[in-house]
Amino acid sequence: MQLNSPRLEAVLPGRENNLNLVRMVAAAAVLISHAHPITGRADPLQALSGATGGELAVAVFFGISGLLIARSFDRRQSMARFALARVLRLFPALAVMLALTIVAGACFTRLPLADFFARVETWTYIPANLALYSPQFALPGVFEKNPYGPPINGSLWTLFYEVACYGGVVAIGLLGVLRQRWLALAVLLAVAAIQVAVPMINAPDGIAAGRVPLRIVLLAQLAFPFMLGTFAYVWRAHLPLSGWVALALWLPVPLFAPGAMMTSWIVLALVYSALWFGFVPKGPLLAYNRLGDYSYGVYIYAFPVQQALVFLLPGMTPLANMALALPVTLVLAFLSWTLVEERALAAVRPLADALTRNRSMPQANDKERPTA
């Protein structure tokens, strides 16, 4: 470990980093965590930390996203390009996955095909999930007897909160917070306080037991790591990335009882550790970048693959589910990146330039307009 640690600002530019690898590890961790409830078991990490492995892995995703989205908005060439980059990163691959899920659902459903395609739920599945706000997790007659029940893609719920956090960055960016270090610190502290307080006041013995809507609880939970990443970007000139600091952040974890405080501290340690690992170690690790960014594909395909395996091989263990689901999911993620995601991202610049060019074209004056 380096005693003279680099500042984030010094290592942030360029593509010589391990962020693709970090996201891939996080996506694999979500798959590993989901293998327990999908096979009818409890995630052992939840009893130890107050959060599942999947929830902690999602926090890593949100922390990295907070950094990169804040940087993207702060350095945007136009609002059109910023928005298009977000839309084309999420929705084309999601739409293809949902369409393939309908096809797979037709193969797995207990209903006759005519009944399957006659149900309104079959036709609302794609638009409901593309809308993000209220995902539709089930298809008629599919996986109804699985240990986890009929949800086909239980991971999609986080996408709404991801987009909500994008909106939060736009809001604080327009207010100038991304250029004001102390304002960013104040926003982070406020988000942290809400993230810790909401589960406590909503607990069965809390002052608002069960009254805080679940959507608010989840937004608070995910906005915290996202804001940690955004804070890191704003403080990039002053934030050292040190392996020793990362290690020190993990030392107090055993002092907390499992619950909101322990989870919050673990998220802080995870996000900082992910940033250190993402930017400081070099050498052979950078070779992973030649492969592509398969993490989103793994994230959106893993759950349906795992559910399908449990359907085909009843009684399988979590370890068997992990071992069989991972290679299948990797193949689908590779195809998703190669055939959909990479091409969609390549279209961001030309589409944004076309939109900007069209908006900047002068309108014809009255003399140039044809008369009726």
Q: Would you summarize the structure shown here?
A:
The chain is mainly alpha-helical and 372 residues long.
Topology (elements, then pairings):
Elements: H1 8-11, H2 19-38, H3 44-49, H4 53-74, H5 79-108, H6 113-118, H7 120-131, H8 157-174, H9 181-202, H10 214-234, H11 243-250, H12 260-279, H13 295-312, H14 318-346, H15 348-360
Helix pairs in contact: 2-4, 2-12, 2-13, 2-14, 4-8, 4-10, 4-12, 5-7, 5-13, 5-14, 5-15, 8-10, 9-10, 10-12, 11-12, 13-14
Report on this model:
- This protein has helices at 8-11, 19-38, 44-49, 53-74, 79-108, 113-118, 120-131, 157-174, 181-202, 214-234, 243-250, 260-279, 295-312, 318-346, 348-360.
- It is an all-alpha fold.
- Mean pLDDT is 91; it is low at 363-372.
Spatial extent as radius of gyration:
22 Å
Strand proportion, as a percent range, falls in under 5%
Q: Would you tell me the overall average pLDDT?
A: 91
Shape: globular
Distance between the termini: 77 Å
Order of helices and strands: HHHHHHHHHHHHHHH
Tally of separate helices: 15
Please tag this protein with its features.
372 residues, mainly alpha, 67% helix, globular
